[in-house]
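Inverse folding, one chain.
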């Protein structure tokens, strides 16, 4: 009977140790995932800021005016489509 209790205690101790080991592994993986998500959010914010800066620098009205004055190009009021007859 005493051997059974000792064996049961050893088994419980081993299971408890393995459980703790796996919990630590899971916690480290969750921390790594959280860090990656934070990094992704920061990169998305940075990308959005760069897109907004690019859009600010890209002045379409100035480009249109430049093309009209220097190149003699004008914007069409309507698009003329064509069709291919068979």
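Residues assigned per position:
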């Amino acid at each position: 009977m005493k051997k059974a209790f000792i064996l049961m205690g050893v088994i419980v101790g081993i299971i408890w140790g393995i459980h703790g080991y796996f919990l630590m592994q899971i916690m480290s993986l969750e921390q790594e995932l959280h860090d990656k998500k934070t990094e992704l959010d920061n990169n998305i914010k940075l990308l959005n800021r760069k897109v907004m800066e690019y859009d600010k620098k890209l002045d379409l009205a100035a480009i249109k005016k430049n093309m009209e004055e220097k190149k003699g190009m004008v914007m069409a009021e309507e698009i003329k489509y064509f069709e291919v007859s068979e």
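Residues 2-67 form one domain. The radius of gyration is 34 Å.
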